[in-house]
Design a protein that fits this description.
Length: 214
């Protein structure tokens, strides 16, 4: 059971290795990040999902991202993924998740794609790439489709996170902008944590939203 201090912020982990699992799990939990996506195009993603579930215990909700087809979906679920994220609208993957009652976050951009993803059973629609269109685009989409939950993904940072929520985003995700490959390679988890705290403080200074899965 994820604690009540569940922030509507998802961590995207791409290109991590086994040595990163425990340090990242600890710093994410320490900073109230409860939802972690490990991309399926990361080497040994299956094993990393399993290890993150062990390291996170009951404090982390571990899912799989960059799920592009049914083979990816089967691999992710066999590894123990608790939710699924796609970069685009992949109908058979969405249907497969809905049939198994697995939360699914398909990627979409246009109003037609967003509406279609929601109608197919998306838990929340991943608006990607959010930074190219900005918070104003979310406000425009939400005007006629205010019942659809949107997660802003791509380019979210301490300078714009509040603007995304003020414009109607229900959640956001961060990835390589904070969990940088160079810092991972050099074991500089302190720098990752420093920048993560900046993001969270920017969110907390202006917002109070329910969690991603509520």
């Amino acid at each position: 059971m994820i604690p009540k201090d569940n922030l509507p912020i998802l961590a995207i982990l791409r290109g991590i290795t086994e040595k990163d699992v425990i340090p990242l799990a600890k710093l994410l939990v320490r900073n109230q990040i409860r939802h972690v996506e490990i991309t399926m195009n990361t080497d040994d993603a299956d094993r990393l999902i399993q290890q993150f579930r062990i390291a996170g215990k009951a404090d982390l909700n571990v899912g799989a991202g960059t799920v592009l087809n049914m083979q990816d979906l089967r691999r992710a679920l066999d590894a123990g993924a608790e939710f699924i994220v796609c970069p685009s609208l992949i109908k058979d993957v969405i249907a497969g998740c809905v049939s198994k009652n697995i939360p699914v976050f398909p990627g979409a951009l246009t109003p037609t794609e967003i509406h279609t993803a929601w109608k197919l059973g998306a838990t929340m629609v991943k608006l990607f790439p959010a930074s190219l269109f900005g918070p104003g685009y979310i406000r425009a989409v939400k005007a006629p489709m205010n019942n659809i939950k949107l997660m802003a993904v791509g380019g979210v940072n301490p300078q714009n996170i509040s603007k995304f929520f003020e414009s109607g985003a229900d959640a956001v995700a961060f990835g390589a902008g904070i969990i940088r490959s160079k810092w991972l390679e050099e074991g500089k988890y302190d720098l990752i944590e420093k920048h993560l705290r900046m993001l969270i403080e920017a969110y907390k200074s202006n917002q109070n939203h329910p969690g991603i899965f509520t």
